[in-house]
């Protein structure tokens, strides 16, 4: 179901009081995996504001809501239990992608307070090299090029430029960003990116019971990356996490996570190194007898928007497939 139609119907259900009744009775069964990227005040960010899932106050409300209404599970539960075990459960798992510093500064204390163990998929190269992500660099260039323009004009320019990046082959990535920097008269972003966690932060989170998964070394879209590079991206990111954090990395998430961002071949390669892998295009994971359960395409829903939208998402996630 398209999001505008879904939102309209779900809002109507909320106004009639049906959502609360549905939550009490349970409208779905299975495993709902929620994905966050950044948490905080997007308006203060000079990089990509589109990766902000929610603000600090809303995140706290969302975690309290999940803690109160659902069974919150961790990755060990997911990889060890058989698929059929989930058909009668209403389980939720919290995940984060990439390794943004506000995961530590804002989200981590809230998770600790509520006793929730989240799963963090970390791109190891961002932590090691402090390099800027291509989407953040594009946003930075567009904000400078269109300084003084309306927010809508800036957002449109960012979206258009990001879409252009998606359409080109891997070999042209750097040339594309160079051209964008030339046209914007900004050049490329220089120096270390300030948005990433460091290994000490991650070690503190690991010691507090947070879990970690692989998310490649450099965050490429794997289907647009030469197959000869897959092994490095899959294994080196995992090796760095295990080396620095002294943890067992059992799972992986495909960068971007849309259906066109991984393939049967990539899933097979991933299965050589991990016990499960996660996509990011919505839906509930259900036991085999109740529907879809693919251990190397475990669905996730990217969180965004207000607390009202969050309640709708967690009440009717079966319509988000």
Automatic annotation (TrEMBL):
<dbReference type="GO" id="GO:0005576">
    <property type="term" value="C:extracellular region"/>
</dbReference>
<dbReference type="InterPro" id="IPR051398">
    <property type="entry name" value="Polysacch_Deacetylase"/>
</dbReference>
<keyword id="KW-0732">Signal</keyword>
<dbReference type="GO" id="GO:0016810">
    <property type="term" value="F:hydrolase activity, acting on carbon-nitrogen (but not peptide) bonds"/>
</dbReference>
<dbReference type="Pfam" id="PF01522">
    <property type="entry name" value="Polysacc_deac_1"/>
</dbReference>
<protein>
    <recommendedName>
        <fullName>NodB homology domain-containing protein</fullName>
    </recommendedName>
</protein>
<dbReference type="InterPro" id="IPR002509">
    <property type="entry name" value="NODB_dom"/>
</dbReference>
<feature type="domain" description="NodB homology">
    <location>
        <begin position="90"/>
        <end position="321"/>
    </location>
</feature>
<dbReference type="InterPro" id="IPR011330">
    <property type="entry name" value="Glyco_hydro/deAcase_b/a-brl"/>
</dbReference>
<dbReference type="GO" id="GO:0005975">
    <property type="term" value="P:carbohydrate metabolic process"/>
</dbReference>
């Amino acid at each position: 179901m398209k999001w505008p139609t879904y939102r309209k119907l779900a809002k109507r259900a909320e106004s009639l009081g049906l959502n609360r009744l549905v939550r009490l009775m349970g409208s779905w069964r299975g495993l709902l995996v929620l994905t966050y990227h950044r948490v905080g005040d997007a308006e203060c960010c000079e990089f990509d504001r589109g990766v902000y899932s929610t603000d600090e106050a809303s995140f706290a409300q969302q975690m309290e809501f999940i803690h109160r209404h659902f069974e919150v599970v961790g990755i060990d539960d997911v990889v060890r239990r058989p698929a059929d075990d989930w058909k009668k459960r209403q389980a939720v798992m919290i995940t984060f992608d990439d390794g943004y510093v506000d995961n530590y500064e804002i989200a981590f204390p809230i998770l600790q307070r509520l006793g929730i163990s989240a799963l963090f998929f970390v791109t190891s190269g961002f932590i090691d090299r402090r390099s800027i992500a291509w989407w953040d660099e594009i946003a930075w260039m567009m904000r400078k090029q269109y300084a003084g323009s309306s927010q809508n004009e800036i957002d449109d320019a960012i979206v258009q430029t990001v879409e252009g990046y998606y359409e080109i082959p891997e070999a042209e990535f750097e040339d594309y960003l160079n051209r964008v920097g030339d046209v914007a008269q900004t050049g490329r972003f220089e120096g270390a990116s300030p948005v990433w966690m460091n290994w000490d932060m991650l070690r503190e989170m690991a010691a507090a019971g947070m879990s970690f998964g692989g998310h490649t070394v450099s965050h490429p879209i794997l289907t647009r990356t030469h197959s000869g590079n897959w092994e490095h991206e899959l294994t080196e990111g995992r090796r760095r996490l295990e080396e620095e954090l002294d943890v067992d990395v059992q799972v992986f998430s495909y960068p971007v996570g849309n259906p066109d961002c991984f393939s049967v071949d990539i899933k097979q390669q991933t299965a050589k190194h991990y016990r499960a892998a996660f996509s990011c295009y919505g839906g509930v994971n259900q036991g085999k007898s109740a529907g879809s359960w693919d251990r190397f395409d475990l669905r996730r829903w990217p969180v965004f928007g207000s607390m009202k939208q969050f309640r709708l998402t967690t009440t009717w996630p079966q319509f988000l497939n």
